[in-house]
């Protein structure tokens, strides 16, 4: 082992785990030397209506790019999450829901969830939803979100969940992009005691979506909303009349299961498309092995269902495994910053999976808020969404886990469908800050900017050499963009967009994005998206957005804004622009710092030199590097002189 701190697998953990070191090594070796044989066997972990005979048909060649897994098999994802458990654990809790208000919680059994999903599937059919139709879901963290997603899967409709924090415009763009004809929302969401006007936002979005003709509204808070005759229906009214008998549709393995929009390096979010068979196999397998899930355990992933983590590790993975999955409506600091640990004690949570940004925010509140709770039920902790700094990792391990619970730092992406690089708790010695080693079937590789494969301890661009079953299949409606984005930078390989270091033990250390995507509190934000929101303001001539290191958020959003001639750069305008971006995209895109830029640093051919802007934003203006290609060096002096981040 190299010089970094190493935390060995506790012997008791190894003994009790599904996978120990020897098993990991043997299974991993087989998974990459004989993928067909390996996945032929592990594909059977889910229920197929018609068994597959084909396993893997993949080409990463841009001329003929296709990815197919278990192609001739048929199945239904909701049947795998519900029906298959009725005989063995129908009365066990499936979803343990904890409300924003600490006095509100409920347990929903597999049998109850099966009935609700079947009913809502019948509701969807009665509203005219058919196989392959796109259904947009804009709901808060309430059980109806799970019901709606699984009901889509049951009838073979493709769900597109839009995070409740997105603005009406962002929602409208996502409805339009996939031509969805129906939206499912709620009157209002509830987070940290505050109401989120979801129906009002949906109304505003639907005003520009003429082909979306139906809106189903769940009553969550009882707040007043307008209901449009002929278009809007109350969920509860529709459910009253619906039958709880709805046979699951037989879907082909490669039929789409869902679309999830994510930011890239251009202004327009991409509709990442996942299909049914491979995704379900990969979601359930990673959930069982990475979290070492054992029947009866309470598992809690704190993500929102609006993100891929919620899709795979609140819903599909855990439910396919018959797990008890906790769904939390609230936020970590309401009513106070001890809430997570109070919920852990209240529900005897065994496995807890959250994001580094939450850990850093809670760390700042002090140990006492953690220490006053028991947490004795916890046995495993997880981290996802961004690199976790060793300091936060060690605090999580020592204070939250009492040095008893291993931490799985899981690296993956919306595009990958499930976890690709991660420790397995019984098999992998941990190094704080490293996502460690690849999961079964995953072949990471590091390449230099010219695409040369780098061996041994090194640093480079993280690519994946071959397909795994959970991989995205295309960008919805734009297969060329799929090929361009992921398979053209480095020919024949899937390019993740991340930079990464590999140490002498073969451990992977993700260093962050190498493209124009930034990671704000574990949420992906395209800088181009924020820029196009800014330039849409009538007073803005030009804008450039970069990330900068932020203590809590990981990265903050730093915007350089050039105003139109004659506009005054005032404090009011600065505030107005922040509000403007919030309205255009959503609160997660709010610029943290806005610097007035009389001009932006450009090359003589007019290209903005982002490298320089990143350095100034990071307060590293003494390391600007080569500036000889600048058209006007005085521009940089002005930006350095007036920089906003002097921390
Ligand atoms: O940069 C990586 C970072 O988050 C990106 C993926 O973002 P998204 O598609 O929103 O999915 C987030 C949840 C899976 C990656 O390209 N990232 C995610 N997990 C980690 C991470 N960076 C370092 N360590 C991680 N564990």
Automatic annotation (TrEMBL):
Residues modified as N6-acetyllysine: 607
- Report domain AMP-dependent synthetase/ligase positions: 83-467
Q: Which NCBIfam families match?
A: Ac_CoA_lig_AcsA, PRK00174.1
Provide the protein name.
Acetyl-coenzyme A synthetase
Q: Which organism is it from?
A: Thalassobaculum fulvum
Q: Name one GO molecular function term.
A: ATP binding
Family listed: Belongs to the ATP-dependent AMP-binding enzyme family.
Q: Which UniProt keywords apply?
A: Acetylation, ATP-binding, Ligase, Magnesium, Metal-binding, Nucleotide-binding
Q: Which reaction does it catalyse?
A: acetate + ATP + CoA = acetyl-CoA + AMP + diphosphate
Which GO cellular component does the record give, naming just one?
cytosol
Q: Which cofactor does it need?
A: Mg(2+)
Q: Which PROSITE patterns match?
A: AMP_BINDING
Q: What does this protein do?
A: Catalyzes the conversion of acetate into acetyl-CoA (AcCoA), an essential intermediate at the junction of anabolic and catabolic pathways. AcsA undergoes a two-step reaction. In the first half reaction, AcsA combines acetate with ATP to form acetyl-adenylate (AcAMP) intermediate. In the second half reaction, it can then transfer the acetyl group from AcAMP to the sulfhydryl group of CoA, forming the product AcCoA.
A Pfam family of the record is AMP-binding
Which residue numbers delimit the AMP-binding enzyme C-terminal domain? 529-607
Report which superkingdom the organism of origin falls in.
Bacteria
Q: Where is the Acetyl-coenzyme A synthetase N-terminal domain?
A: 24-81
Chain sites annotated for binding ATP: 385-387, 409-414, 498, 513, 524
The UniProt PTM text for this protein says: Acetylated. Deacetylation by the SIR2-homolog deacetylase activates the enzyme.
């Amino acid at each position: 082992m190299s010089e970094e701190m190493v935390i060995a697998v506790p012997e008791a953990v190894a003994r009790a785990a599904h996978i120990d070191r020897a098993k990991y090594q043997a299974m991993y070796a087989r998974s990459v030397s004989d993928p067909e044989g390996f996945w032929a066997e592990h594909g059977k972990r889910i229920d197929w209506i018609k068994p597959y005979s084909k396993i893997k048909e993949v080409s990463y060649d841009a001329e003929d790019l296709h990815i197919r897994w278990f192609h001739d098999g048929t199945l239904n994802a909701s049947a795998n999450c519900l029906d298959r458990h009725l005989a063995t654990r129908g009365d066990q809790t499936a979803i343990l829901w904890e409300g924003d208000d600490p006095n509100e919680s409920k347990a929903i059994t597999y049998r109850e969830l099966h009935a609700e999903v079947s009913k809502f599937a019948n509701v969807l059919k009665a509203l005219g939803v058919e196989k392959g139709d796109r259904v947009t879901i804009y709901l808060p963290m309430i059980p109806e979100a799970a019901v709606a997603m699984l009901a889509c899967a049951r009838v073979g409709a493709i769900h597109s969940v839009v995070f409740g924090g997105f603005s009406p415009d962002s929602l409208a763009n996502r409805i339009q992009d996939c031509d969805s004809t129906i939206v499912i929302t709620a009157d209002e969401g509830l987070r940290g005691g505050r109401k989120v006007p979801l129906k009002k936002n949906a109304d505003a979005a639907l005003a520009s979506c003429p082909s979306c003709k139906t809106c189903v509204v769940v009553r969550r808070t009882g707040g007043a909303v307008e209901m449009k005759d002929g278009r809007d229906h109350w969920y509860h009214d529709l459910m009253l009349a619906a039958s709880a008998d709805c046979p699951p549709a037989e879907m082909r393995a490669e039929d789409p299961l869902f679309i999830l929009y994510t930011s890239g390096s251009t202004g327009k979010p991409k509709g990442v498309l996942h299909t049914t068979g491979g995704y379900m196999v990969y979601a359930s397998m990673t959930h069982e092995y990475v979290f070492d899930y054992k029947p009866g355990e309470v598992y809690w992933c704190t993500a929102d269902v609006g993100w891929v983590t919620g899709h795979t590790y609140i819903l599909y993975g855990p439910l396919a495994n018959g797990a008890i999955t906790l769904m939390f409506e609230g936020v970590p600091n309401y009513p106070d910053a001890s809430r997570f640990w109070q919920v852990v004690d209240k529900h005897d949570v065994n496995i807890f999976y959250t994001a580094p940004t939450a850990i850093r925010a809670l760390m700042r509140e002090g140990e006492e808020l953690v220490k006053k709770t028991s947490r004795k039920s916890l046995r495993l902790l997880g981290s996802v969404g961004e690199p976790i700094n060793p300091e936060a990792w060690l605090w999580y391990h020592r204070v939250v886990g009492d040095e008893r619970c291993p931490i799985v730092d899981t690296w993956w992406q919306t595009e990958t469908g499930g976890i690709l690089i991660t420790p397995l708790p019984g098999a992998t010695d941990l190094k704080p800050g490293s996502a460690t080693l690849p999961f079964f079937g995953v072949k990471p590789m590091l390449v230099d900017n010219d695409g040369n494969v780098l061996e041994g301890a090194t640093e480079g661009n993280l690519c994946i050499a071959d397909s795994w079953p959970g991989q995205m299949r295309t960008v919805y409606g734009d297969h060329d963009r799929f090929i361009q984005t992921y398979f053209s930078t480095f020919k024949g390989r899937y390019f993740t967009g991340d930079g990464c270091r590999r140490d002498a033990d073969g451990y992977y250390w993700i260093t962050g994005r190498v493209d124009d995507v930034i990671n704000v509190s574990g949420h992906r934000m395209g800088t181009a998206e924020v820029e196009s929101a800014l330039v849409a303001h009538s007073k803005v001539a030009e804008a450039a957005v970069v990330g900068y290191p932020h203590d809590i958020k990981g990265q903050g959003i730093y915007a350089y804004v050039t105003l139109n001639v004659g506009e005054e750069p005032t404090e009011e305008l600065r505030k107005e622009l922040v509000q403007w971006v919030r309205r255009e995209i959503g609160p997660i895109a709010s610029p943290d710092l806005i610097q007035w830029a009389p001009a932006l640093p450009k090359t003589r051919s007019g290209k903005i030199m982002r490298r320089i802007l990143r350095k100034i934003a990071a307060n590293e203006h003494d390391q600007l590097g080569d500036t000889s290609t600048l058209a006007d060096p005085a521009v940089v002096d002005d930006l350095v002189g007036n920089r906003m981040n002097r921390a």
